[in-house]
Recover the amino acids of this structure.
């Protein structure tokens, strides 16, 4: 409990919870849309070899996760160090041993983990029907289609979450993100002859 | 033993943690203390505050450590009220 309170305190003084929330949505959306793109690619090319589909999707999920972790850590660590330096100049004191110093060291790790793990976990959730169908053959009919529907559902839910944060109508926000997913699908279909 | 009953401190602190979190964190470290937090000046990144702390036996070193941990620093001790112990017969 004390650790949670400390973490919450550090998060509040740096406002990192807002940054992490933004990254959660942005990279979660990236992850879901990237998976949708891959699944549609397999669908239009009539590629149904589950092992290939799972390996390609897993490779993309790991790459999205690693990219999210490293890019967010590098940028957030630099940003937080700069903020700390500015605050030290204003306070005329070294703040490295204070809550601000600790937050500048810890919060970039938390934000990076959020940024990297969100697309990875979302990708794994989308891949679940494929994985189940691979492990237990015959249990899931049309795993590619179910995974695609799952991707649409997660994209809709991210939109709903966005709507709740912004205070707008959640349904409209969900429909907007769903429209983006549908347009993406349409473009993939239109580019099929290429 | 001399007991500190009341302190008024002039403190410079960053805007975060805000007044409520700052005063609450101090109150957690100083049980049964009455803490009053008053902002006297606000700059771009910092604010000057007056902390009035009243209690039965205030441990200044604990208060100072809690203030420093939150990135703030004590500029001056403006008022002190102490009570002396009964003389040993």
């Amino acid at each position: 409990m004390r650790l949670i309170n400390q973490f919450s305190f550090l998060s509040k003084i740096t406002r990192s919870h807002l940054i992490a929330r933004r990254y959660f949505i942005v990279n979660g959306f990236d992850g879901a849309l990237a998976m949708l793109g891959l699944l549609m690619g397999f669908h239009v090319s009539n590629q149904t070899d589950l092992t290939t589909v799972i390996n390609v999707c897993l490779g993309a999920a790991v790459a999205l996760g690693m990219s999210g972790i490293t890019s967010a850590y590098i940028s957030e660590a630099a940003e937080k160090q700069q903020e700390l330096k500015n605050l030290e100049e204003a306070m005329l004191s070294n703040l490295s041993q204070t809550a601000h110093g600790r937050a500048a060291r810890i919060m970039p790790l938390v934000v990076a983990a959020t940024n990297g793990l969100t697309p990875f976990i979302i990708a794994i959730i989308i891949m679940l029907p494929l994985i189940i169908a691979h492990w237990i053959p015959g249990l899931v009919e049309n795993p590619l289609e179910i995974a695609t529907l799952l991707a649409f559902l997660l994209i809709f839910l991210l939109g709903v979450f966005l709507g709740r944060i912004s205070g707008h109508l959640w349904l409209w926000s969900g429909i907007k993100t769903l429209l983006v997913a549908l347009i993406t699908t349409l473009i993939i279909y239109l580019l099929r002859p290429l | 033993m001399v007991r500190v009953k009341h302190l008024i401190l002039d403190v410079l602190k960053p805007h975060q943690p805000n007044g409520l979190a700052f005063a609450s964190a101090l109150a957690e470290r100083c049980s049964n203390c009455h803490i009053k937090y008053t902002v006297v000046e606000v700059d771009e990144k910092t604010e000057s505050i007056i902390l009035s702390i009243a209690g039965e036996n205030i441990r200044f070193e604990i208060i100072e450590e809690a203030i420093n941990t939150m990135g703030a620093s004590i500029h001056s001790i403006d008022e002190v009220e102490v009570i002396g112990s009964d003389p040993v017969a």
Residues 24 and 35 of chain B are 9 Å apart (CA to CA). The interface with chain A takes residues 12, 14, 16-17, 21, 25, 43-46, 68-71, 73 of chain B (CB under 8 Å).
